[in-house]
Automatic annotation (TrEMBL):
Keyword Transferase part of the UniProt annotation: yes
Catalytic activity: (sulfur carrier)-H + L-cysteine = (sulfur carrier)-SH + L-alanine
EC numbers: 2.8.1.7
Family, per entry: Belongs to the class-V pyridoxal-phosphate-dependent aminotransferase family. Csd subfamily.
CC cofactor: pyridoxal 5'-phosphate
Domain Aminotransferase class V: 48-418
Pfam families: Aminotran_5
Name under which the protein is recorded: Cysteine desulfurase
Transferase as UniProt keyword: yes
Enzyme class, first EC level, given as a word: transferase
GO molecular function terms attached to this record: cysteine desulfurase activity
Keywords: Pyridoxal phosphate, Transferase
Length: 476
Protein backbone atom coordinates (compact mmCIF):
# COMPACT_ATOMS: atom_id res chain seq x y z
CA UNK A 1 0.00 0.00 0.00
CA UNK A 2 1.36 3.46 -0.81
CA UNK A 3 1.21 6.45 1.50
CA UNK A 4 -1.38 7.96 -0.83
CA UNK A 5 -3.69 4.96 -0.52
CA UNK A 6 -3.28 4.98 3.25
CA UNK A 7 -4.49 8.58 3.18
CA UNK A 8 -7.49 7.72 1.03
CA UNK A 9 -8.56 4.88 3.33
CA UNK A 10 -8.59 7.14 6.31
CA UNK A 11 -10.67 9.67 4.49
CA UNK A 12 -13.56 7.21 4.47
CA UNK A 13 -14.18 6.38 8.13
CA UNK A 14 -16.86 3.83 8.81
CA UNK A 15 -17.91 4.80 12.31
CA UNK A 16 -19.15 8.05 13.80
CA UNK A 17 -18.10 8.98 17.34
CA UNK A 18 -20.69 10.92 19.31
CA UNK A 19 -20.78 14.68 19.06
CA UNK A 20 -18.48 16.37 21.54
CA UNK A 21 -20.38 19.63 22.26
CA UNK A 22 -20.54 18.69 25.95
CA UNK A 23 -16.80 18.25 26.44
CA UNK A 24 -15.33 21.07 28.54
CA UNK A 25 -11.72 22.30 28.41
CA UNK A 26 -9.40 20.17 30.54
CA UNK A 27 -7.69 23.28 31.94
CA UNK A 28 -8.63 26.97 31.81
CA UNK A 29 -6.71 29.15 29.37
CA UNK A 30 -6.50 32.91 29.06
CA UNK A 31 -8.77 34.38 26.39
CA UNK A 32 -11.22 31.50 26.20
CA UNK A 33 -14.15 33.94 26.10
CA UNK A 34 -12.65 36.44 23.68
CA UNK A 35 -15.19 37.57 21.09
CA UNK A 36 -14.17 38.17 17.49
CA UNK A 37 -16.09 39.95 14.73
CA UNK A 38 -17.54 38.21 11.68
CA UNK A 39 -18.13 39.73 8.27
CA UNK A 40 -21.89 39.76 8.91
CA UNK A 41 -21.44 42.08 11.90
CA UNK A 42 -21.98 39.47 14.63
CA UNK A 43 -19.41 38.74 17.36
CA UNK A 44 -18.74 35.15 18.43
CA UNK A 45 -16.30 33.51 20.86
CA UNK A 46 -13.03 32.79 19.07
CA UNK A 47 -12.61 29.09 18.33
CA UNK A 48 -8.84 28.71 18.57
CA UNK A 49 -8.06 25.56 16.61
CA UNK A 50 -4.47 26.59 15.88
CA UNK A 51 -2.88 25.64 19.19
CA UNK A 52 -0.26 23.44 17.49
CA UNK A 53 1.24 26.69 16.18
CA UNK A 54 1.04 28.59 19.48
CA UNK A 55 -1.12 27.67 22.46
CA UNK A 56 -2.83 30.23 24.68
CA UNK A 57 -1.41 30.73 28.17
CA UNK A 58 -2.85 28.60 30.93
CA UNK A 59 -4.58 30.77 33.48
CA UNK A 60 -2.26 29.24 36.08
CA UNK A 61 0.74 30.42 34.06
CA UNK A 62 -0.52 33.98 33.62
CA UNK A 63 -1.39 34.16 37.34
CA UNK A 64 2.06 32.92 38.31
CA UNK A 65 3.78 35.41 36.03
CA UNK A 66 1.72 38.22 37.57
CA UNK A 67 2.88 37.06 41.04
CA UNK A 68 6.53 36.91 40.00
CA UNK A 69 6.79 40.18 38.06
CA UNK A 70 7.04 42.40 41.19
CA UNK A 71 10.00 40.25 42.28
CA UNK A 72 11.74 40.47 38.93
CA UNK A 73 15.23 41.99 38.88
CA UNK A 74 18.60 41.31 37.26
CA UNK A 75 19.83 37.72 37.56
CA UNK A 76 23.06 35.83 38.13
CA UNK A 77 25.40 38.71 38.85
CA UNK A 78 23.24 41.04 40.89
CA UNK A 79 23.83 41.29 44.65
CA UNK A 80 20.50 42.92 45.46
CA UNK A 81 17.88 40.94 47.35
CA UNK A 82 15.49 40.78 44.39
CA UNK A 83 18.37 39.78 42.10
CA UNK A 84 18.97 36.84 44.38
CA UNK A 85 15.26 35.99 44.39
CA UNK A 86 15.15 36.21 40.58
CA UNK A 87 18.25 34.05 40.25
CA UNK A 88 16.71 31.46 42.55
CA UNK A 89 13.47 31.56 40.54
CA UNK A 90 15.37 31.10 37.27
CA UNK A 91 17.47 28.19 38.50
CA UNK A 92 14.46 26.56 40.14
CA UNK A 93 12.58 26.92 36.83
CA UNK A 94 15.47 25.19 35.08
CA UNK A 95 15.11 22.20 37.41
CA UNK A 96 11.34 22.03 36.77
CA UNK A 97 11.82 22.37 32.99
CA UNK A 98 14.23 19.41 33.11
CA UNK A 99 12.09 17.31 35.45
CA UNK A 100 9.06 17.89 33.20
CA UNK A 101 10.80 15.84 30.49
CA UNK A 102 12.31 13.28 32.88
CA UNK A 103 15.87 14.60 32.82
CA UNK A 104 18.50 12.25 34.22
CA UNK A 105 20.58 13.56 37.14
CA UNK A 106 23.51 14.47 34.93
CA UNK A 107 21.56 15.89 31.98
CA UNK A 108 22.04 19.50 30.97
CA UNK A 109 19.01 21.82 30.85
CA UNK A 110 19.52 24.83 28.60
CA UNK A 111 16.87 27.51 28.37
CA UNK A 112 16.45 28.48 24.73
CA UNK A 113 14.00 30.65 22.81
CA UNK A 114 12.06 27.71 21.33
CA UNK A 115 12.48 24.31 19.68
CA UNK A 116 14.16 25.76 16.59
CA UNK A 117 16.72 27.48 18.78
CA UNK A 118 17.31 24.30 20.79
CA UNK A 119 17.89 22.11 17.75
CA UNK A 120 20.23 24.66 16.17
CA UNK A 121 22.15 24.73 19.43
CA UNK A 122 22.52 20.95 19.43
CA UNK A 123 23.58 21.00 15.78
CA UNK A 124 26.55 23.12 16.84
CA UNK A 125 27.54 20.49 19.41
CA UNK A 126 27.78 17.44 17.16
CA UNK A 127 31.14 15.85 17.95
CA UNK A 128 33.57 15.30 15.12
CA UNK A 129 33.63 11.92 13.45
CA UNK A 130 37.16 10.58 14.07
CA UNK A 131 37.31 9.23 10.50
CA UNK A 132 36.55 12.55 8.78
CA UNK A 133 37.21 15.22 11.37
CA UNK A 134 33.80 16.64 10.36
CA UNK A 135 30.71 16.80 12.60
CA UNK A 136 29.13 13.35 12.95
CA UNK A 137 26.42 12.36 10.46
CA UNK A 138 22.71 12.76 11.17
CA UNK A 139 19.76 10.65 10.03
CA UNK A 140 16.25 12.16 9.79
CA UNK A 141 12.97 11.21 8.16
CA UNK A 142 11.29 13.36 5.51
CA UNK A 143 8.29 13.87 7.81
CA UNK A 144 10.14 16.36 9.99
CA UNK A 145 9.33 20.02 10.59
CA UNK A 146 12.01 22.22 8.98
CA UNK A 147 13.32 22.97 12.48
CA UNK A 148 14.37 19.32 12.76
CA UNK A 149 15.82 19.14 9.28
CA UNK A 150 17.56 22.34 8.24
CA UNK A 151 19.91 22.69 11.27
CA UNK A 152 21.33 19.24 10.52
CA UNK A 153 21.56 19.81 6.77
CA UNK A 154 23.36 23.08 7.31
CA UNK A 155 25.84 21.63 9.79
CA UNK A 156 26.72 18.17 8.65
CA UNK A 157 26.29 15.28 6.26
CA UNK A 158 22.58 14.51 6.74
CA UNK A 159 20.59 11.67 5.28
CA UNK A 160 16.87 12.30 4.79
CA UNK A 161 15.08 8.97 4.72
CA UNK A 162 11.75 8.77 2.91
CA UNK A 163 9.00 7.56 5.22
CA UNK A 164 7.37 4.28 4.23
CA UNK A 165 3.65 3.54 3.84
CA UNK A 166 3.34 2.29 7.42
CA UNK A 167 5.04 2.75 10.76
CA UNK A 168 6.37 -0.81 10.50
CA UNK A 169 7.85 -0.23 7.04
CA UNK A 170 9.37 3.10 8.11
CA UNK A 171 11.00 1.54 11.15
CA UNK A 172 12.37 -1.28 9.00
CA UNK A 173 13.86 1.28 6.60
CA UNK A 174 15.37 3.19 9.52
CA UNK A 175 16.95 0.04 10.93
CA UNK A 176 18.35 -0.93 7.51
CA UNK A 177 19.81 2.53 6.99
CA UNK A 178 21.45 2.55 10.41
CA UNK A 179 22.87 -0.94 9.94
CA UNK A 180 24.02 -0.64 6.35
CA UNK A 181 24.99 3.00 5.82
CA UNK A 182 26.24 4.14 9.22
CA UNK A 183 27.93 5.25 11.29
CA UNK A 184 25.53 8.01 12.30
CA UNK A 185 26.14 10.21 15.33
CA UNK A 186 22.50 11.16 15.74
CA UNK A 187 18.98 10.17 14.75
CA UNK A 188 16.68 13.22 14.84
CA UNK A 189 13.04 12.22 15.11
CA UNK A 190 9.76 13.92 15.85
CA UNK A 191 7.77 13.14 18.97
CA UNK A 192 4.62 13.98 17.01
CA UNK A 193 4.24 15.30 13.47
CA UNK A 194 2.91 18.83 13.29
CA UNK A 195 1.00 17.77 10.17
CA UNK A 196 -0.73 14.58 11.28
CA UNK A 197 0.05 14.25 15.00
CA UNK A 198 1.58 10.85 14.29
CA UNK A 199 4.98 9.50 15.24
CA UNK A 200 7.18 6.45 15.23
CA UNK A 201 7.28 4.58 18.56
CA UNK A 202 10.08 6.29 20.45
CA UNK A 203 11.29 3.09 22.13
CA UNK A 204 11.84 1.39 18.77
CA UNK A 205 13.76 4.37 17.37
CA UNK A 206 15.97 4.52 20.46
CA UNK A 207 16.67 0.80 20.33
CA UNK A 208 17.63 0.91 16.64
CA UNK A 209 19.76 4.05 17.01
CA UNK A 210 21.58 2.94 20.14
CA UNK A 211 22.26 -0.52 18.67
CA UNK A 212 24.01 1.30 15.80
CA UNK A 213 25.95 3.61 18.14
CA UNK A 214 23.87 6.72 17.37
CA UNK A 215 22.19 9.04 19.83
CA UNK A 216 18.59 10.22 19.52
CA UNK A 217 17.21 13.74 19.68
CA UNK A 218 13.44 14.06 19.93
CA UNK A 219 11.72 17.11 18.50
CA UNK A 220 9.25 17.43 21.35
CA UNK A 221 7.50 20.58 20.08
CA UNK A 222 4.19 18.79 19.48
CA UNK A 223 4.61 15.91 21.93
CA UNK A 224 5.60 17.52 25.20
CA UNK A 225 2.52 19.78 25.47
CA UNK A 226 0.27 16.76 24.91
CA UNK A 227 1.79 13.67 26.56
CA UNK A 228 4.04 12.88 29.52
CA UNK A 229 7.56 12.31 28.23
CA UNK A 230 10.66 11.10 30.06
CA UNK A 231 14.25 11.05 28.86
CA UNK A 232 15.17 8.67 31.67
CA UNK A 233 12.38 6.21 30.87
CA UNK A 234 12.73 6.25 27.07
CA UNK A 235 16.52 6.46 26.83
CA UNK A 236 16.17 9.39 24.39
CA UNK A 237 19.39 11.41 24.59
CA UNK A 238 18.06 14.93 23.90
CA UNK A 239 14.67 16.60 23.73
CA UNK A 240 13.77 20.07 22.48
CA UNK A 241 10.50 21.84 23.18
CA UNK A 242 8.80 25.25 23.12
CA UNK A 243 7.08 27.24 25.86
CA UNK A 244 4.68 28.93 23.45
CA UNK A 245 3.31 25.53 22.43
CA UNK A 246 3.22 24.39 26.07
CA UNK A 247 0.77 27.09 27.23
CA UNK A 248 3.58 29.45 28.32
CA UNK A 249 3.92 32.06 25.56
CA UNK A 250 6.65 34.12 27.20
CA UNK A 251 9.50 33.38 24.82
CA UNK A 252 11.34 30.44 26.38
CA UNK A 253 11.95 26.87 25.26
CA UNK A 254 14.42 24.19 26.24
CA UNK A 255 17.07 21.73 25.19
CA UNK A 256 17.55 18.94 27.72
CA UNK A 257 19.94 16.03 27.48
CA UNK A 258 23.38 14.49 27.75
CA UNK A 259 25.94 16.96 29.02
CA UNK A 260 29.07 15.65 27.35
CA UNK A 261 28.27 16.94 23.86
CA UNK A 262 26.88 20.17 25.27
CA UNK A 263 29.92 20.83 27.44
CA UNK A 264 32.33 20.13 24.58
CA UNK A 265 30.34 21.96 21.90
CA UNK A 266 30.98 25.42 20.56
CA UNK A 267 29.21 27.92 22.83
CA UNK A 268 25.95 28.76 21.06
CA UNK A 269 26.21 32.48 21.70
CA UNK A 270 29.45 34.30 22.43
CA UNK A 271 29.17 36.92 25.14
CA UNK A 272 28.85 37.72 28.81
CA UNK A 273 27.80 34.96 31.19
CA UNK A 274 29.20 32.16 29.04
CA UNK A 275 32.81 32.71 30.09
CA UNK A 276 34.98 32.05 33.14
CA UNK A 277 37.77 34.39 32.10
CA UNK A 278 38.54 36.58 29.10
CA UNK A 279 41.90 37.97 28.07
CA UNK A 280 42.52 39.93 24.94
CA UNK A 281 43.92 36.86 23.24
CA UNK A 282 42.13 33.95 24.91
CA UNK A 283 38.82 32.99 26.46
CA UNK A 284 37.95 30.24 28.94
CA UNK A 285 34.35 29.17 28.41
CA UNK A 286 32.04 27.80 31.07
CA UNK A 287 30.64 24.35 30.82
CA UNK A 288 27.10 23.56 31.96
CA UNK A 289 24.10 25.59 30.77
CA UNK A 290 25.90 28.93 31.11
CA UNK A 291 28.16 27.92 28.20
CA UNK A 292 25.21 28.25 25.80
CA UNK A 293 23.20 31.00 27.52
CA UNK A 294 25.31 34.12 26.96
CA UNK A 295 23.50 37.40 27.46
CA UNK A 296 20.71 38.14 29.90
CA UNK A 297 18.42 35.13 30.23
CA UNK A 298 14.65 35.12 29.77
CA UNK A 299 13.77 34.72 33.44
CA UNK A 300 10.05 35.30 33.03
CA UNK A 301 9.92 32.92 30.07
CA UNK A 302 11.63 30.18 32.06
CA UNK A 303 9.44 30.76 35.12
CA UNK A 304 6.32 30.67 32.92
CA UNK A 305 7.41 27.44 31.26
CA UNK A 306 8.04 25.87 34.66
CA UNK A 307 4.61 27.02 35.84
CA UNK A 308 3.02 25.39 32.77
CA UNK A 309 4.91 22.19 33.53
CA UNK A 310 3.62 22.23 37.11
CA UNK A 311 0.04 22.89 35.99
CA UNK A 312 0.08 20.13 33.37
CA UNK A 313 1.62 17.63 35.78
CA UNK A 314 -1.02 18.39 38.39
CA UNK A 315 -3.67 16.81 36.13
CA UNK A 316 -4.03 13.06 35.62
CA UNK A 317 -2.36 12.41 32.21
CA UNK A 318 -5.07 9.86 31.40
CA UNK A 319 -7.67 12.59 31.77
CA UNK A 320 -5.78 14.90 29.40
CA UNK A 321 -5.27 12.09 26.89
CA UNK A 322 -8.98 11.18 26.97
CA UNK A 323 -10.02 14.79 26.42
CA UNK A 324 -7.69 15.14 23.46
CA UNK A 325 -8.50 11.75 21.92
CA UNK A 326 -12.24 12.46 22.01
CA UNK A 327 -11.76 15.79 20.20
CA UNK A 328 -9.30 14.37 17.70
CA UNK A 329 -11.43 11.33 16.86
CA UNK A 330 -14.45 13.52 16.31
CA UNK A 331 -12.44 15.84 14.03
CA UNK A 332 -11.01 12.99 11.95
CA UNK A 333 -14.35 11.28 11.50
CA UNK A 334 -16.56 14.37 11.37
CA UNK A 335 -14.39 16.00 8.70
CA UNK A 336 -13.57 12.74 6.91
CA UNK A 337 -17.27 11.92 6.51
CA UNK A 338 -17.90 15.14 4.58
CA UNK A 339 -18.01 15.02 0.78
CA UNK A 340 -14.87 16.42 -0.85
CA UNK A 341 -12.92 16.47 2.44
CA UNK A 342 -9.75 14.42 2.69
CA UNK A 343 -7.93 13.93 5.98
CA UNK A 344 -4.15 13.68 5.68
CA UNK A 345 -2.37 10.79 7.35
CA UNK A 346 1.21 9.52 7.06
CA UNK A 347 0.53 6.01 8.27
CA UNK A 348 -2.49 3.84 8.90
CA UNK A 349 -0.83 1.98 11.78
CA UNK A 350 0.29 5.01 13.85
CA UNK A 351 -0.66 4.73 17.52
CA UNK A 352 -1.93 7.50 19.81
CA UNK A 353 -1.54 10.56 17.55
CA UNK A 354 -1.78 13.97 19.23
CA UNK A 355 -4.57 16.45 18.52
CA UNK A 356 -3.50 17.70 15.11
CA UNK A 357 -5.74 17.03 12.10
CA UNK A 358 -4.89 18.23 8.60
CA UNK A 359 -7.36 18.15 5.72
CA UNK A 360 -8.19 19.50 2.28
CA UNK A 361 -11.50 20.45 0.67
CA UNK A 362 -11.53 19.60 -3.01
CA UNK A 363 -12.19 22.67 -5.12
CA UNK A 364 -11.12 25.19 -2.47
CA UNK A 365 -7.64 26.56 -1.97
CA UNK A 366 -6.52 25.94 1.64
CA UNK A 367 -5.94 29.68 2.08
CA UNK A 368 -9.52 30.38 1.08
CA UNK A 369 -10.83 27.74 3.49
CA UNK A 370 -8.85 29.31 6.34
CA UNK A 371 -10.00 32.85 5.42
CA UNK A 372 -13.64 31.66 5.23
CA UNK A 373 -13.46 29.90 8.61
CA UNK A 374 -12.13 33.08 10.19
CA UNK A 375 -14.36 35.62 8.46
CA UNK A 376 -17.66 33.73 8.53
CA UNK A 377 -17.28 31.53 11.63
CA UNK A 378 -14.67 33.06 13.96
CA UNK A 379 -12.54 29.92 13.78
CA UNK A 380 -8.74 30.09 13.73
CA UNK A 381 -6.92 27.34 11.83
CA UNK A 382 -3.67 27.21 9.89
CA UNK A 383 -3.19 26.69 6.18
CA UNK A 384 -0.12 26.07 4.10
CA UNK A 385 2.56 23.44 4.20
CA UNK A 386 3.26 23.80 7.91
CA UNK A 387 7.07 24.08 7.57
CA UNK A 388 7.05 20.44 6.43
CA UNK A 389 7.43 20.85 2.68
CA UNK A 390 9.07 17.46 2.03
CA UNK A 391 6.22 15.58 3.72
CA UNK A 392 3.42 17.57 2.09
CA UNK A 393 5.12 17.11 -1.28
CA UNK A 394 5.52 13.36 -0.87
CA UNK A 395 1.92 12.89 0.21
CA UNK A 396 0.69 14.86 -2.79
CA UNK A 397 -0.31 18.07 -0.98
CA UNK A 398 2.18 20.50 -2.51
CA UNK A 399 -0.62 23.06 -2.81
CA UNK A 400 -0.99 22.95 0.97
CA UNK A 401 -3.76 21.91 3.32
CA UNK A 402 -5.70 23.16 6.34
CA UNK A 403 -4.75 22.17 9.88
CA UNK A 404 -6.97 22.13 12.96
CA UNK A 405 -5.32 21.45 16.30
CA UNK A 406 -6.65 21.10 19.82
CA UNK A 407 -5.21 21.31 23.31
CA UNK A 408 -6.13 21.31 26.98
CA UNK A 409 -8.09 24.56 26.60
CA UNK A 410 -10.24 23.38 23.67
CA UNK A 411 -13.95 22.80 24.32
CA UNK A 412 -15.76 20.19 22.23
CA UNK A 413 -18.09 22.90 20.94
CA UNK A 414 -15.17 24.43 18.97
CA UNK A 415 -14.67 21.13 17.18
CA UNK A 416 -18.37 20.92 16.32
CA UNK A 417 -18.29 24.49 15.02
CA UNK A 418 -15.43 23.60 12.67
CA UNK A 419 -17.14 20.49 11.32
CA UNK A 420 -20.39 22.41 10.77
CA UNK A 421 -18.55 25.29 9.09
CA UNK A 422 -16.70 22.98 6.69
CA UNK A 423 -19.96 21.14 5.96
CA UNK A 424 -21.58 24.50 5.12
CA UNK A 425 -18.68 25.36 2.82
CA UNK A 426 -19.00 22.07 0.99
CA UNK A 427 -22.77 22.48 0.65
CA UNK A 428 -23.21 26.20 -0.09
CA UNK A 429 -19.76 27.67 -0.71
CA UNK A 430 -18.58 30.83 1.03
CA UNK A 431 -21.09 33.62 1.51
CA UNK A 432 -18.67 36.58 1.52
CA UNK A 433 -16.50 37.68 -1.39
CA UNK A 434 -12.83 36.71 -1.25
CA UNK A 435 -9.90 37.67 -3.40
CA UNK A 436 -6.17 37.05 -3.55
CA UNK A 437 -4.26 40.24 -2.83
CA UNK A 438 -0.47 40.13 -2.78
CA UNK A 439 -0.66 36.36 -2.58
CA UNK A 440 -3.11 36.29 0.32
CA UNK A 441 -6.76 35.37 0.56
CA UNK A 442 -8.65 38.34 1.96
CA UNK A 443 -12.28 39.35 2.35
CA UNK A 444 -13.22 41.93 -0.27
CA UNK A 445 -13.95 45.19 1.61
CA UNK A 446 -13.47 43.39 4.93
CA UNK A 447 -15.80 45.16 7.40
CA UNK A 448 -14.36 43.59 10.56
CA UNK A 449 -13.08 46.20 13.03
CA UNK A 450 -9.77 45.87 14.88
CA UNK A 451 -9.64 45.71 18.71
CA UNK A 452 -9.87 49.17 20.20
CA UNK A 453 -7.30 50.93 22.35
CA UNK A 454 -4.24 49.17 20.93
CA UNK A 455 -3.29 51.69 18.27
CA UNK A 456 -3.98 49.22 15.45
CA UNK A 457 -4.98 50.67 12.13
CA UNK A 458 -5.90 47.42 10.38
CA UNK A 459 -5.71 43.65 10.34
CA UNK A 460 -2.56 42.07 8.99
CA UNK A 461 -2.94 38.80 7.14
CA UNK A 462 -0.90 36.05 8.75
CA UNK A 463 1.37 34.93 5.96
CA UNK A 464 2.53 36.09 2.58
CA UNK A 465 4.19 34.76 -0.49
CA UNK A 466 7.89 34.90 0.08
CA UNK A 467 7.16 34.83 3.79
CA UNK A 468 10.52 34.41 5.54
CA UNK A 469 9.20 31.38 7.44
CA UNK A 470 8.74 29.59 4.15
CA UNK A 471 5.58 28.07 5.58
CA UNK A 472 3.15 29.36 2.98
CA UNK A 473 2.48 27.71 -0.36
CA UNK A 474 1.99 29.58 -3.57
CA UNK A 475 -1.63 30.63 -3.85
CA UNK A 476 -3.00 29.94 -7.33
C1 LIG B 1 7.07 19.48 15.22
C2 LIG B 1 7.63 20.87 15.33
N1 LIG B 1 8.94 21.03 15.49
C3 LIG B 1 9.49 22.23 15.63
C4 LIG B 1 8.73 23.36 15.57
C5 LIG B 1 9.38 24.70 15.75
O1 LIG B 1 8.93 25.23 16.94
P1 LIG B 1 9.30 26.75 17.32
O2 LIG B 1 8.68 27.59 16.26
O3 LIG B 1 8.68 26.93 18.65
O4 LIG B 1 10.77 26.84 17.34
C6 LIG B 1 7.36 23.27 15.39
C7 LIG B 1 6.52 24.48 15.28
O5 LIG B 1 5.46 24.48 14.73
C8 LIG B 1 6.79 21.98 15.28
O6 LIG B 1 5.47 21.83 15.13
Amino acid sequence: MTAATAVAEHASPTYAPARVDGIAPALPVVGADTLVPLVDGRRVPYANLDVAASAPALEAVADHVARVLPLYASVHRGAGYLSQVSTALYEQARRTIGAFVGARDDDGVIVTRNTTDALNLLAGCLPADPATGQPGRVLVLDIEHHANLLPWQRTTDTTVLTGGPSVAATLAALRDELRESGPYALVATTGASNVTGESLPVAAVVEAAHAAGARVVLDGAQLVPHRPFSLAETGVDYVAYSGHKTYAPYGAGALVGRRDWLDAGTPYLAGGGAVKRVRVTETAWHDGPARHEAGSPNVIGAVALAAAADALRAVDPAELALHEAALRDRLVVGLGNLDRVQVVRCWDDAVDPVGVVTFTVTGYDPGLVAAYLSAEHGIGVRDGRFCAHPLLGRLGFDAGAVRASVGVGTPGSDVERLIAAVAALVEHGPQAQYDVVDGLWVVVDDPRPVPEGLGLDGLLATAALGDPTGCTPTVP
